[in-house]
Structures are given as C-alpha cells and as structure tokens.
Specification:
- By secondary structure, the protein is α/β, with parallel strands linked by helices.
- It has 3 domains: about 90 residues, GTPase HflX, N-terminal domain (Rossmann fold); about 170 residues, 3-Layer(aba) Sandwich (Rossmann fold), CATH 3.40.50.300; about 60 residues, Alpha-Beta Plaits (2-Layer Sandwich).
- It is about 40% helix and about 20% strand.
- The protein contains 15 helices and 14 strands.
- A 7-stranded mixed β-sheet has the order 6-7-5-8-9-11-10, sandwiched between helices. A 4-stranded parallel β-sheet has the order 2-1-3-4, with helices on both faces.
- Strand 3, helix 3 and strand 4 form a beta-alpha-beta unit.
- Helix 4 runs antiparallel to helix 5.
- The longest helix is centred in the middle third of the chain and has 36 residues.
- The chain is elongated, with a radius of gyration of 29 Å.
Length: about 450
C-alpha cells in the first residue's frame, strides 16, 4: 500500500522544541510570525524539550501522539516545524500524521516564492526550491522507485525517480547559467558606477526592521512595505543626491533572519553581491525590538557569509516612534565620525529632520576631502566659473576693485582637481591675491 501525500492546507499546527545542544534556538514568536507571513493559520503550538532530536521523527514518540491528537482535534492540514528536518524525518512524519509536514527552510522558501515579483527574484527562489527538493523527491511517492512498464512506457531502464532527478539537475544547471548572466550584468553596472565615481549605499538588516519604509522615505520609490517578515524580496535601486557627495545609488535588499538557510544565501548571491560591493552599508535596526542585540548579531553572521563584514557600516536605529521620549539624533565616535543615527522612517514625512540627519551622516562618511575657501578668477576664466556654478559649488561671489572675481566655493577636492585639469589651471594660481596673479598670462 502506497502513501499519497495529501494536498496542502492553511490550518497549521506548529512544533517548537528546545534542544540544548542546538547552536541557535529560534524564537517561537518569530516562528509564528513567519507562518502568518506565509498565509498560514496557526491553531496550536506544540512545544517541548529534548536532549537531541529523535532520528526517525525529530520529536519523541510521546510528542508524536500529542501531535496526532492536535491534528485530529483541529482538523489541521499542515504541520510546521521550527527546525530543519531531514528528508526521511519529513517522510516518516507525513506517514504518521497523514498530513503535509513542512520544516523551517520549506516555510521560508514558500514565503520567498509568494514575494518574488521580478524575473531575477523568481529564478533565485526557484533555484533554492529545486535544491531543497532534490533531496526530497521520494517523500511519500514510493511507487516512483519502480521502473515503468507496458507498451509505450518502456524506457532505458530509468525509474521515474531517476528521470525526475535528471530533469531536476538539468533545470538547476539552466537557472544557474541565467543567474550567472544576471551577476555579470550587475557587475558591469557596478563597474560603470565606479568609473563615474558614484558611491553605492546598501540597506541591510533583520527582516521587518523597516528597510523598505526608510527606502521609500528617502527615494519616494513606492516599494511595497508591510509590517510582516520578508515583505521585500526583489532588490530595488534608486539614484539619490547627497550634499558634498553628489549622486549616489541606494539599494534595498532582502531582509536577513536567524538561521537563514544556506541555500537561500547561495541562490541570492547575485543580489547580495550588491551589498558586498557597496561603499557603505546602512544596517537598519528595529530600535523597539526586545531582541535587538540578537538580531544585530544574526545580520553580522550573514554579512560575514557574503564577505561584507569588513565594509564601512552606519547603524540606523529605526522605529524610535515606538520608544518614549526619543528624538532623532546622530551618535559619534571619539573622532567625531557618525556611527549611528536614531530616526523614525514612518514619521519622516511629518518630521523631515529624520531623513536630514541621515543624509548629514551619509555625507560625512562618503564625502571626500572638501575644499572650502575663496579663489580668484580673472576675466579669461569664465569657463571655470561656469563649471563651478553647474556643480553648485559657489557659496558667495564678489568682485575686487580691479574687476577680479572672488568666489567662495565648497567642493570635493577630487572634483575641483578634475575641473582645473580640464581648464589647464593650477590651484596655487587661484589662491593668490589679485595683485600677485598675472591673469593675462593665464589666459594665454
């Protein structure tokens, strides 16, 4: 007698065990939020403690009987474990419970599949799902191990299972090639930005920390933002203007979570490379979350996995509107450099100081050495004067009695040097007092 897997449903019984030997214990509240984000309807949470997972069912036989009773009591169609299950454990549990069983990785993959909108995002999710599925092809379909027989069904000796595995490997290879093409396109875009000296700033952080709300407040991009886990999946990039820096690119990325499945990190590497090649990371943190420090540590672990842990980083403590008597501010280190910004992205429209403080911190961290003082331009330097105005570098303009233009300018030194090189003018000549400069000679 062969066991056919039942259809998936929405009513779900959740299972969470405390296992002391586990390296990281996932929060049951976060687990329930994940289920809700996936569209599930949690009806019961079965919790317990074991010294080690049961090799056959993950939970012990006593807990298995409790779980069977809960499934029957609530007529649940789905049991979700807040743990990583082996393929054999999933298969054994489904036979015993006669309903669909899902582990934490499968749950996150399902959420990602719902959120993917772009072609690239769908490819990344499909790759992660196929790699997860490749070890679970047998599951309940034990009849697939037999070879086909009968007229028109005789093949080269492959079982149906072997055929499926071969097709699966071919599909994984095809998607891998497409994502490699995406990765090269992204790399080409990054090289173009580097040539144009346009810095890239990436928003990273724990899921539901408010990255997309902050992104919308800065760029008016209209990115989907919702108070739920993994509301953002597809990366979005927008051009912004920063004082003393000029144009910059701001990238919104997928949120991280504790014990983020490794295959998801691998599948989304093309997207996460955007963060690992940034000039600055904005680590967005939910300031009102009780698990704030733990979430910061989990994000740092993922950043280390994608080789982005050594990049310059500005901490952005968001959602201060949920804290009492907290006003937007910038925290600085002993050298006066910004290290953290406290703000409320949700209230940015009503209180623009939230975003202005963030822009101020970004400008201080990204701006090169700034040249700010008066320079003197003769009549033959009208072209340089026009360049400085186009760059919005002129703070004040006046004229000496002999008609020499005196400009007070503020501009990154690198930009000024490029302008002077194009005009074939030495900086020292601009800094001299009018009577010391032979402007007729400069004009020649």
């Amino acid at each position: 007698m062969f066991f056919d897997r039942p259809d998936s449903g929405e009513l779900a019984v959740l299972v969470h065990l405390e296992i002391p030997q586990s390296a990281e214990s996932d929060d049951p509240r976060e687990f329930e939020e994940l289920v809700l984000s996936a569209g599930g309807d949690p009806v019961e949470l079965l919790s317990g403690q074991r010294s080690a997972p049961h090799p056959k069912y993950f939970i012990g036989t006593g807990k298995l009987e409790e779980l069977q009773a809960l499934v029957q009591q609530h007529q649940a169609e789905l049991v979700i474990f807040n743990h990583e299950l082996s393929p054999s454990q999933e298969r054994n549990l489904e036979k015993a419970l006669e309903c669909r069983v899902l582990d934490r990785t499968g749950l996150i993959l399902d959420i990602f599949a719902q959120r993917a909108r772009t072609h690239e995002g769908k490819l990344q999710v499909e790759l992660a799902q196929l790699e997860h599925m490749s070890t679970r092809l047998i599951r309940g379909w034990t009849h697939l191990e037999r070879q086909k027989g009968g007229i028109g069904l005789r093949g080269p000796g492959e079982t149906q299972l072997e055929t499926d595995r071969r097709l699966l490997r071919a599909r994984i290879k095809t998607i891998g090639k497409r994502l490699e093409k995406v990765r090269k396109q992204r790399e080409q875009g990054r090289r173009a930005r580097n040539r144009a000296d346009i810095p890239t700033v990436s928003l990273v952080g724990y899921t539901n920390a408010g990255k997309s709300t902050l992104f919308n407040a800065i760029t008016d991009a209209g990115v989907f933002a919702q108070d739920q886990l993994f509301a953002t999946l597809d990366p979005t990039m927008r051009r912004i203007g920063l004082p003393d820096v000029g144009p910059a690119v701001l990238a919104d990325t997928v949120g991280f979570i504790s014990n983020l499945p490794h295959r998801l990190v691998e599948s989304f590497r093309a997207t996460l490379e955007e963060a690992s090649s940034s000039d600055l990371l904005l680590h967005v943190i939910d300031a009102a979350d009780d698990e704030r420090q733990r979430n910061i540590e989990q994000v740092n672990l993922v950043l280390e996995e994608i080789d982005a842990h050594e990049l310059p980083c500005l901490m952005v403590y968001n959602k201060i509107d949920l804290l009492s008597d907290m006003a937007p501010r910038i925290d600085r280190d002993d050298q006066g450099r910004p290290v953290a910004v406290w703000l409320s992205a949700k209230n940015a429209a009503d209180n623009p100081v939230n975003i202005s403080l963030l822009f101020q911190a970004l400008a201080e961290l990204l701006a090169e050495d700034i040249f700010q003082q008066s320079v003197y331009l003769g009549a033959a330097m009208g072209s340089l004067r026009a360049r400085l105005y186009r760059h919005n570098a002129v703070l004040n303009e006046s004229y000496t009695p002999d008609g020499i233009c005196e400009l007070e300018i503020r501009i990154p030194e690198a930009d000024l040097k490029r302008m002077l090189s194009a005009e074939n003018i030495a900086l020292d000549d601009l800094l001299k007092q009018p009577e010391q400069t032979d402007y007729q000679q400069l004009a020649v």
